[in-house]
Amino acid sequence: MSDYRGEGRGDGRGGYGYGRGRQQGGRDGGQRRGIPLSELDPTLTSISHKVIGCARDVHIALGGGYDESTYMTALQQEMRAQGVNFKHNHSIPVKYKDQVVGHSICDLFIEDRFIVDVMARYGDVSGAERSVLRAQLKAADLELGLIINFAGRLLKDGLVRVLNVDKINAAKGIAPGSYDGAEGQGGDDAQMYDFDEKG
After folding, report:
1. Cα pseudo-dihedral 176, 177, 178, 181, rounded to 10
2. Among 143, 146, 190, which Cα is nearest to 169's?
3. Assuming Cys at both sites, which of 57, 106, 117, 145 could form a disulfide with 162, CB separation 3.0 to 4.6 Å?
4. Over the range 82-117, which residues count as b (16 or more CB within 10 Å of their CB) and which as e?
């Protein structure tokens, strides 16, 4: 498995997770800048790159056109082969005032560090899908989640990282609800372009 970070992007921004669509026009009409992957725990980013590599291998082998359960099964098989520990359909308790008021089920809970949501639907990942993953991250007190949509011709077009910005900022001593981004632009999710994919 090769290293997919920052290769072939051609935009001079390394592995920053810049994207298109919602990210270009952001909340203030300018281009949004996400939190650089370099600001996350290196172990976490290393594991996420390994999962992305597994997803890439599955997508190259199968291509688009199958249902979500087919990709889910193939991705689990590839992660086992690559030594990635995960829990499928993991239940996350949702608390309100320190009381559990419900549970949210995530597709994959990777190495007890981050969440992966697997999709196989044509079209861009929606704001609602990002919001669900962001809520799961907050409930589980995790920094990073990935949405992997296998439906497209290129897997990189369906990779979105979602961040729990409040947790990341809390580790830096920044108050919840604030963003620590360039020129006041904090991105909490972005299209991922951390690897090249042939085809």
Report:
1. 110
2. 143
3. 145
4. eebebeeebebebeeeeeeeeebebbbbbbebbbbb
Between 195 and 7, the higher pLDDT residue: 195
Q: Give the per-residue pLDDT at 178.
A: 57
What size, in residues, is the chain? 199
Q: What is the pTM of this model?
A: 0.73
Pairwise CA distance, residues 97 & 117, whole Å: 27
What does the mean pLDDT of the chain come to? 77
